[in-house]
Write a structure and sequence with these properties.
223 residues; Nucleotide Exchange Factor Grpe, Chain A, domain 2; 15% strand
């Protein structure tokens, strides 16, 4: 009887020892899950919170950079489309200006007395040519083509081409005194520079103020 009790107590002691060992192993596993090297769970949670906040800040920065890149791409694409639409007719407009020049030369070649004493049929023809010239220039203007007539303005090599000099001591030097051929711009670019005669021998022009182009002002680049 005593032997049976001793054996029974020994089995219970072994079971209790095994249970304590399992509990100790479970506590060790929990400690590994909560973070090795941390003295308590609160310290581990604070570290995890800081890690998550750093990741969120990094993701936010990436999102802001991506949004900025997308906005820049949208603006560049919009500008490219606008430029393509604006300057796509540059070649056609230049050819139409040549036709307009020929019409104007034909009209200017007519003597004044012929205009005054001409027959009704001739006057009708002249009026038709003048109307055609005006209509052509108005159509070009609707598409962004504008005339440059810089008489009495300061010579600007970005928009004007000097053909000759006119001696004049009373006018500031390099002032446009005569326009041989009107110039034209399309949007912000020179379609054709104005052919001009400039003054020579007068006082010097004051220094040109460097002002940035605003609201789509012509930048002097030629199409």
């Amino acid at each position: 009887m005593m032997a049976d009790e001793t054996e029974h107590h020994g089995e219970e002691a072994a079971k209790e020892t095994g249970a304590r060992a399992e509990n100790t192993a479970g506590e060790t596993s929990d400690a590994e899950q909560t973070g090795e090297g941390f003295s308590n769970p609160l310290e581990f949670l604070n570290a995890e919170l800081q890690r998550v906040e750093d990741e969120n800040a990094e993701l936010k920065d990436k999102m802001l950079r991506l949004a900025a890149d997308m906005e820049n791409l949208r603006r560049r694409t919009q500008k490219d489309v606008s430029d393509a639409r604006e300057y796509s007719i540059a070649g056609f407009a230049r050819e139409m200006l040549a036709v307009s020049d020929n019409l104007r030369r034909a009209l200017d070649a007519l003597p004044d007395d012929l205009r005054q004493e001409g027959e009704s049929g001739l006057n009708t023809l002249i009026e038709g040519v003048e109307l055609t010239e005006r209509s052509m220039l108005q159509a070009l203007e609707k598409h962004g083509v504008k005339k440059i007539t810089p008489v009495n303005e300061r010579f600007d090599p970005n928009f004007h081409q000097a053909m000759f000099e006119i001696p004049d001591a009373e006018v500031p030097n390099n002032t446009v005194l005569q326009v041989v051929q009107d110039g034209y711009v399309i949007g912000g670019r020179v379609l054709r520079p104005a052919l001009v005669g400039v003054s020579k021998g007068g006082p010097k022009q004051p220094p040109r103020e460097s002002e940035p182009a605003e609201n789509g002002e012509a930048d002097g680049s030629q199409v």
